[in-house]
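Sat 14:20. Reprocessing the chain from the morning session after the first attempt stalled halfway. Input below, unchanged.
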Amino acid sequence: MTAMNALEQLSQTVRNLSDIVAHSFSSLSLVDLNYKPAPDKWSMLECLEHLNRYSRYYNPVLTKAVAQSSSDEIYVTGINYSWIGKKSLEMVRPQNMKKHKTVKHMNPNNSQLTRATVEEFLLHQQELLQLLYDARKVNLNRKAVPVEFFKLLKMRLGESLEFMVVHQERHIQQALRVKQELMKQAAA
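Finished this time. Tokens:
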């Protein structure tokens, strides 16, 4: 797959995720959005807050990486994956139902959250769409993005963008499952 196709596919996924969040959660009350299926599980808002925490780190880092990549660099035909990129993507793919322990500062469990969490998520999505657009002009295989939990490790720009989108897919699906549990409970 060409880099341009990959970026367009990622952009479409981001637009879809934004629509899902805007439409699936807007009609719910704050009490419903904070519903937790179990004390150790996340609410819908906690799923979004987790993604917001990642976006607060990665969006500025990705913006800087895109800005520092000149358009003079050799344009590549696709995204190549490093071992850390492959491992990171494998871990967060929605199909991978294995639970992973979240680093403490990225874990929103028992946070006091409001509708502002949803609004912030949607703003981060707009930033990510702009990043995906801007990334069309740069080398996606340049190692330029420090991994959040261990900044000495760097991922390539393209795999970092893909990581952000796939990670969001995983947790939006998780939030939708929480909503489904809430609806089942309300119907019972």
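Strands lie at 143-147, 150-156.
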